[in-house]
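Quarterly update from the structural biology core.
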Amino acid sequence: MNFKGICFVLGYEELVDVAFGRASKKIPAEKVEFVSKTIRKHLSKVTRSWPNLDELPLFYNELINITIDTDELNNALTALKKSEMVIHKLEKTFQKKLRKRLNNDAAYQIRKVYYGRVKATLKRIRRELEFLAESRKRLIEFPEIEDEFTTVIVGLPNVGKSSILQAMTNASPRVEPYPFTTQSMLLGYFEAKHLRYQVIDTPGLLDRPLKERNPIERQAILSLRHLANIVIYIFDPTETCGFTKKEQLNVFQELVKNFNVKVIPLVNKIDLHGEQEGTEFLNSLNLDGFKCSAIGKTGIDELREEIMNCRSSYKE
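Predicted structure, tokenized:
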């Protein structure tokens, strides 16, 4: 899904400058119609460019719902449509007045009143224009999820999720950042045996119930719910991430409990604590997983091989 087709939204001052600035170069008989058409064309283009939320894939529908106020979005689009109609009506009304035999001064005064009415109409939707402009900025940064076998990387903040993604998808021509306040969702791809694999790195999850998670964390939950064919859960036994082993285990257990998807435990940062300690950590939790170093790319090939095997099993 590509949201970059949403029309750029001019603010109140910008729209006034464009419409009236260009109209000043027209002959008097064309000014009213030109202002009207310029503004209505922009408002119409904005409203028509927004997707119908009910027709979007569920992942994007829910992602939009946690990113912007959809009620306010619908109200803003409705306000623009109404303003477009009002401006069209003003055009007809004042054009009718200007068709009468008028001297230049009288015609100028009528156009001046018309300009004032149009500006007042636009000023009433100033906040809606600002809201749509800001909402567009957020939506055009949404990731373009492909219909590929998808691995979702999860874990607490700073355990090395992005580093693992970069190591796994180093050969990919595309790794896209998806800004969301101070955290990011990243997409990466790798190819093997003529097949393409999509890998998603999600914002960090904290040790708390799913229902208490903030909008940033809920991005990760959406990815797990709607996109994941398999999940890689990253542990950092060194605790240099700032979270205890217990906290990391709590989140892991909650994911396994709440999502019907295969979860692969992955111990990261073995360059810091050693492979043997990673093995002992997994054994202490009675988990069968992998050990990696994103920096040295140790264990990355084995991890990719496991994903490929999971895909074969998944397709069966």
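Strands lie at 149-154, 176-180, 183-192, 195-201, 230-235, 262-267, 290-291.
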